[in-house]
Amino acid sequence: MSNDRPAGDDLAAFAKRAGQLAGWAARTGFEFTRKLPGVELAEQIVKQGERQLLSELRRRLDEVDDPYHAALTAASAMNRPDTNGARPVEATITLVHTRAQLEPLRAAMAELLNHSIGFGRERAREYLYAIILRQLTPDEARILSALSDGSPFPAVDVAERTNLGGAGRFVLRNASTVGKAAGVSLPDQVPGYLTRLIGLGLVELDEEVPALETQYEILLTDETVREAEKSVKRAKFVKRTVHISRLGAQFWQACDPSAG
Question: What superkingdom heads the lineage (predicted)?
């Protein structure tokens, strides 16, 4: 990684460029003028620019320190003979004095502990957000964007109804209309996307909101929900809402490409 400026500044610069590109498309009514002469070429240029920006952003994120990768590199260095071929080169992790010795998991933990000593509050937050960002798929980023204003969306679990009317075996969790609202590429994967986002702490589930009844009715006609309903003798729908979490809101504020 270049030492000319911090990694956080680079990420912010690339995110800002992506936001400016999106802003240009919005200001010019890009989506509504595709059929005008020359717009198809402009769309190709925009998409090419987006791909280049995303490719560069991905490269920058890949350069965020990976303690396990660092430990494997150290272990590999230990097995590499010195210039005389007499003995392996010894690699150590500083601050927490743990030798790699072909134990990358222990060395990786030592590397994380080293980071905890050297990181301040802001650097630790940047590291956390970068690690989260590396785990997101494009569709999950769209969902997070759709939730970023704090609006709740309906969510439904499908379970097998017991003889007492309760919920037995669950056959589907976290189906939601937020996927279609976000324009995801794989609508059938929305339950999995939300499960991952919940696991990352970016999204939370809450109680059913009666004011969203119409949206719940639409959700129950969703193909994924209907297939789950057909897989049990008697289906029970558990209605909830999904919304961005406090961490998710902070993360989005830091990463929002349209801000700044």
Answer: Bacteria
